Amino acid sequence: MNTSAAQRVAILIPALNEELAIRRVVESALAVLPDVIVIDDGSTDRTPQILADLPVILIRHSSPKGKGESLRDGFREALRRGFDAVVAMDGDGQHDAADIPRMLAAARKYPDSLVIGARIRTRENQPNARRRANAVADWGISWGCGIPVADTQSGQRYYPRKVMQLVDLPAQGFVFEAAILIAAVRELGFGVVSIPIETRYSSEFRLSHFRPVRDITLITLYTIARVFHYRDIFASYRRSHSKPPLVFDPVVSVIHEPA
Q1: Separation between Cα atoms, residue 171 and residue 66, nearest integer Å
Q2: Do 194 and 127 contact (CB within 8 A), yes or no?
Q3: Can you tell me whether residue 30 is helix, strand or coil?
Q4: What local confidence, expressed as pLDDT, does residue 209 receive?
Q5: What is the mean pLDDT of residues 253-257?
Q6: Which domains are delineated in the chain?
Q7: Can you spell out the DSSP letters for 120-175?
Q8: CA distances from 141 to 8, 44, 177, 244 (A)
Q9: Radius of gyration of the chain from Cα atoms?
Q10: pLDDT tens string 168-211
């Protein structure tokens, strides 16, 4: 990987009952970066056994605690080990580790930004209900951030160290991803840049843990509270909806591991 010696990046994979895809996902991640942290969120299938012989940092929850707690524990482990950033990706196969070099290229170009793998290619592959729910979330979370953001619900993200240090934000489940996005922009002054990735939905994936009605409702309520917290209600709406999100599509043709 063409990263500088000063930048240590790990891949973070939350996993709950991912026996169908987890080995393929982790092996593809290891082919891109040598450091992979897997948070097994209390799986009751063969997920931990499948990973037993792979060179990963495996942290196990005794029972499911939700994606927010999985990300928190992954951030804490990455911070403890001195990583400068992590790239989070889901364990069900929806994200392709081959997109990570492009995310790192975007992070180098925009060093004070989060990077989101935005599912804006082949968007027709996304189920209609999920597409509508994501559109609502993008509209609201962009307002909460005060800047336009593409695909606020994507779990494939590059988190710099300063953003990981927001680990103790009081938000649970999928709301945590919205909370950390809003706080990174509002509290730390970070930007958000998205790289286009494929929209991958297939019958081979397990059913999503995301429940559009329940989770979008919780995310919406949280976001509304943050909009009022920051007070500039109308100004933040204008800033977030007056121009398109920042999308950058770097070309990365050659990947080299450092000697």
Answers
A1: 11
A2: no
A3: helix
A4: 64
A5: 44
A6: 9-241 (3.90.550.10)
A7: EESGGGS-HHHHHHHHHHHHHHHHHHTS--S-TT-S-EEEEHHHHTTTT-S--TTH
A8: 29, 33, 10, 14
A9: 17
A10: 998 988 899 999 999 999 999 999 999 999 877 655 555 566 66
